[in-house]
Amino acid sequence: MPFTTHNGVRLYWRTDGLPQGPTVVLLNSIGTGLKLWDPVVQLMGEHFQFLRLDTRGHGASEASNNDYSLEMLASDLAAVMTAAGVEKAALAGISLGGMIAMQFALDQPQRVSALMLICTSPAMDPTSWAERVALVREQGTSAIAEMAVGRFLSPAFVASRPQVAAGLRAAIRDQANEGYAGAGAAIRDMALIDRIADITAPTLVVTATEDVSTPFEGHGDVLLATISGARHVAVPGGHLPQIEAPGQLAAAITEFLEPRLSARSGLLA
Fold first, then answer.
1. Do residues 200 and 86 make contact, with C-beta atoms less than 8 angstroms apart?
2. Which of 95, 176, 192, 218 is the most exposed place for a label (fewest CB within 10 A)?
3. What is the spatial distance between Cα 230 and Cα 10, in angstroms, rounded to a whole number?
């Protein structure tokens, strides 16, 4: 398994799909790992090379015992891209992953060919996230697993696929407490809202019709109003369309990226 050590933390990453295809980096939500993207990769792997990583403190990546910041997590991403030999790529991020993608696009715009911001936001309620971080540090991730899954998936999906919801709950309970709390601190403290107007990469905003965590109103609409030229696609289901609507999400990403492919090089222009 490929690991990259950055600032003393081992980060796990992998590549999938078409080896010589245009590279798309896939970034995860808090509380999930790179396997979240499996259904989308299976649908799109013949067209793109995918670089996936477990965010610090998630999956097979080590946790550090401190508050994380979006700048820190974007720096982790830069180190993994360099280790994978990827100088420039399109970034697709879900929730926390979208926040990291925006931070990266502001910090290193020359390395970003396009952005796909999925069920994410440039600003969240810091008080609620401060409470969640404190709860995890006091009682562990088991204290928030039920609540988190309730915000990940739509009620209808949970009713029809209870085993999927149970798997997500178990994964959150098994996560390192400091990994979840550290990432939660990055959401709590993020300062993107006053900067995202500076994003210049072509941007697709994806929202989900039953997302209660980052609904269109107050989140997706802010991205569209602030990032010049941003486009919008809505998909069905809750906060994690990789689980509830992988086909619609794969189609939205493909339709957004294909016009930006160079016929000669196969690279994203």
1. no
2. 218
3. 34
- % the chain with pLDDT above 90: 93
Domains defined for the chain, CATH in brackets: 3-124+191-260 (3.40.50.1820)
The per-residue pLDDT for range 76-105, each reduced to its tens digit, is 999 999 999 999 999 999 999 999 999 999
Give the whole-angstrom CA distance, residue 99 versus residue 95. 7
- Tokens describing residue 192: 């993107």
Q: Encode pLDDT of 248-264 as tens digits.
A: 999 999 999 988 765 33
Q: Are 168 and 152 in contact (CB under 8 A)?
A: yes
In the numeric block, the tokens 């905003």 are attached to 205
pTM score, two decimals? 0.96
Band (pLDDT 50/70/90 cuts) for residue 47 is: confident
Cβ neighbourhood burial of 85 (10 Å; 0-12, 13-18, 19+): exposed
- HEC sequence for the chain: CCEEEECCEEEEEEEEECCCCCEEEEECCCCCCHHHHHHHHHHHCCCCEEEEECCCCCCCCCCCCCCCCHHHHHHHHHHHHHHCCCCCEEEEEECHHHHHHHHHHHHCHHHEEEEEEECCCCCCCHHHHHHHHHHHHHHCHHHCHHHHHHHHCCHHHHHHCHHHHHHHHHHHHHCCHHHHHHHHHHHHHCCCCCCHHHCCCCEEEEEECCCCCCCHHHHHHHHHHHCCCCEEEEECCCCCHHHHCHHHHHHHHHHHHHHHECCCCCCEC
